[in-house]
Design goal:
Blueprint (H helix, E strand, L loop, with lengths): L1 H21 L26 E12 L4 E11 L6 E2 L2 E2 H4 L3 E10 L4 E8 L6 E3 L5 E4 L2 E5 L6 E7 L2 E9 L4 E2 L6 E3 L5 E21 L2 E18 L8 E9 L4 E8 L5 E9 L5 E5 L4 E4 L3 E3 L6 E3 L2 E5 L4 E7 L5 E4 L5 E12 L3 E8 L18
Antiparallel strand pairs: 1-2, 1-15, 2-5, 3-4, 5-6, 7-8, 8-9, 9-10, 10-11, 11-14, 12-14, 13-14, 14-15, 16-17, 16-27, 17-18, 18-19, 20-23, 21-22, 23-24, 24-26, 25-26, 26-27
Length: about 375
């Protein structure tokens, strides 16, 4: 009788252990490397980590300028994260997060919002066609077209925009579409670097609605996926530049925990849409000394740069439209980052976006200064 009671008590644990063993984790095997095929690969993948990232510049009928960012993250919980005795990936197939921000240039106001399925919002994506959403925020292709539509609302602003790519997708890295993440591994990486934007920007949004403004502009969309790891380095700096001569430049620098760079690379996109891979030797990015310290997180950021790509005659100054463009997303992705609308002057004029991560943990120090890491 006692043995039977012990068996009854142990049965749920044994059942749970057997079910856990049967549930496959995408982390158990390396994510396959294969050629990128568009538009098929614009849709979601069975990858441990994936994101779709939009940034852009809008102008209303009165000539007022706005920047915007909208990002969707899809993550499979990795082994080692448990909910009680059960691996998180058994109970939570995928987690989705959305980040949204507007830089209101004329008002000198930066507003940001975030959503997450862990907060109880619904979220999902499709592997058959491009569609991803978190709550009522969404991004995807309009059925039967290659035109994209994005929607989001939060913190006094909303967007409902259509985006039409003016160039073929840029496949970064070598081979095309396969980009090194340094110590983090390898990532698939594809961009739409010049997208014509048309739609509505809502301002002064409240419980009763928004004041809608007709806007046009230019946007950039990044799509990355794979099984790369986000740990093992201090952070990264990312630059997207849309020049007025119809060329574009993407650069990223992955920072080492011990100072310096773990790796760096980029792409130059020609007027006719060819993507030319750049190695670390092909360009220089120099912070020119201006900094901004966040009153919320204490992060210290560089906020002015000089970028040179001698091969293409590029020598530009990169300056933010305003310094306070920080995203405090510790409640959704445990990350603090600066996502800034910038202007380009010098050999080429234009506009762009800069992303700077983890400067709360690794505050910026001028070259040669001692590094200081916060726990």
């Amino acid at each position: 009788m006692r043995a039977r009671r012990l068996l009854v008590l142990a049965f749920p644990v044994l059942l749970l252990a057997s079910l856990t063993a049967c549930v496959p984790s995408v982390y158990r095997h390396p994510y396959p490397i294969r050629p990128v095929v568009m538009p098929r690969d614009q849709a979601a993948h069975e990858a441990p980590i994936e994101w779709w990232y939009y940034s852009g510049h809008l102008v209303d009928a009165q000539g007022r300028h706005y920047g915007f960012e909208l990002t969707f993250f899809k993550v499979v919980p990795p082994p080692g994260i448990d909910i009680g005795p059960v691996p998180a990936y058994v109970l939570m197939d995928k987690a989705y997060v959305g980040h949204f921000a507007v830089t209101d240039v004329s008002r000198k106001r930066f507003a940001s919002a975030q959503r997450a399925t862990a907060w109880g919002y619904q979220g999902g994506s499709s592997t058959d066609r491009y569609h991803v959403y978190v709550a009522d925020w969404s991004a995807g292709e309009i059925p039967g077209t290659h035109v994209q539509r994005i929607k989001a609302e939060g913190e006094g602003y909303s967007i409902d925009l259509t985006l039409n790519s003016l160039k073929p997708p840029a496949l970064h890295g070598e081979p095309p579409g396969i980009q090194s993440m340094g110590p983090g591994g390898t990532s698939y990486y594809v961009s739409h670097t010049r997208m014509a934007v048309d739609g509505t920007l809502g301002v002064d949004c409240n419980f009763f609605g928004c004041r809608d403004l007709k806007v046009t502009g230019l946007a950039w969309e990044d799509h990355q996926w794979g099984d790369f790891k986000m740990t093992g380095y201090a952070g990264w700096d990312w630059y997207s530049m849309q020049f007025d001569n119809d060329t574009e430049l993407m650069l990223y620098l992955i920072r080492s925990e011990h100072g310096g760079l773990a790796t760096a690379a980029g792409s130059f996109i020609t007027k006719d849409g060819r993507t030319i891979h750049l190695t670390q030797k092909d360009f220089q990015v120099t912070a020119t000394g201006a900094t901004w310290t966040s009153p919320v997180t204490g992060a210290v950021y560089p906020v002015a740069w000089r970028v040179k790509v001698p091969r293409f005659g590029i020598d530009v100054s990169v300056t933010p439209v305003m310094k306070d463009q920080e995203m405090d997303t510790r409640s959704t992705t445990h990350t603090v980052y600066w996502e800034g609308d910038v202007r380009l002057t010098g050999s080429n004029s234009g506009q762009g976006y800069v992303e700077l991560t983890n400067y709360d943990r690794y505050p910026y120090r001028p070259p040669g200064a001692a590094s200081k890491t916060r726990p």
